[in-house]
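[READ THE FOLD]
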Amino acid sequence: MLPVLIIDDDKDICLVLSRFLGKNNYDVDVANNGEEGLKQLRSKEYTLVLCDYRLPDMTGVDALRKIKLLRPQTAVIIITGYSDVKTAVETFRYGASDFVTKPLYPDELLVTIQETITKNEKRKAGELPSTQSENGKAEGSSKKSRDNGPPPSEFIVGRSIQAATVQRHVELIAPSDLSVIIHGETGTGKEFVAQAIHRLSKRAEKAFVAIDCGALPKELAGSELFGHIKGAFTGAVNDKEGSFELADQGTIFLDEIGNLSYENQVKLLRVIQERRIKRIGATKDIAIDVRIIAATNEDLNKAVKEGKFREDLYHRLNEFKIQLSPLRERKEDIMHFAQHFLAKANHSLNKNVQGFSAAASDLITNYYWHGNLRELNNVVKRAVLLTQGETIQLDSLPQEIVHANNAPVSTNGHVEEEKVGLLKSIAGSAERQAIIDVLEKANYNKSKAAELLKIDRKTLYNKLKLYNINV
């Protein structure tokens, strides 16, 4: 039985998940706050941690960083409410494997857990992911998980002008050996693009090694990147090849490159300049031939000006830049990808949902998608699970999405603005996000938030209920 730790202050959720996962051959332990969970992690090794984003004693990011420091190889799935999706997606830079949104649906959660564990075990074993999904991360669902035919293709290209431009740049740059920086928000498919460049390059038959720099604890980053020899430090019981050695003759993908410590930036610059690496504790250099593709959701130019990122390293990496647009800016792609995720969900959940109703398609197309393709994938999978008929209807979509796009429409097709204080010109998802931002600014004091928004408390409470914002 695989050991799983649930960290959540909601005892009902812990009880339900413990019983459900226990019946599915998982050995489940529970902690009701972050410190209790960390204490259990110190005494026991877990295959997977399910961690709530909002804990009574620390944030989801704080918990995640401490988990990864204690157990770097443990997979972590973040549990979050929809009001936290925008911030939850940022946990990927700190090593989260995936996130699931409340309310939790056991069958869907079980599939996510199985896929996450499969992917994590492959990474730990040093195997290459055989497939890539459009959210930019390797998926474990490529195998035939149920007897319902072969899985859909994992690689599809968008139909928008932006997607066509990216594809043209990929085809242009792939045959060369130039270093590439891919810039875009979390979930826009940066690793997918890096994989595409590798597949079209002369290194396609060699290794593609992906490293999430945001998930590397500072103390272990050097060892993960460049390797170490036995006895180099406490715990170094054997020689270890680093990622650059594993990627020799192939491609190394450095995701969230801006999170590398200054010390490791210096080491990386040396590797690029000299094409040689030195394992920690070793006296001899090792020659390597690796193409570097880096990705970031930060503005590295700004980081350089602020002294957080070395300018010489930036120019070495930035021989060619590819910019990925967020999903909300390329609406032509949204339903194209939604249909693809529908096919994937049908396969993994053994369903046969045929498509989306007109109303559901309209809502999906016009939603903001803070988490981009990853969030779209999760929403479609959940909707497929809930759908009993042939098409996905509004009642299968999260209410937060339904309400976020439920602004009244006038006869000439324009959205009519709500006339409520500072929210007058903000509708749908933008209004919801504005309320969340003000609540955070007011430290979740509803009276102060209402004052800042220039609305009364009753109106604020109605808005919180409308958008399902739990404070």
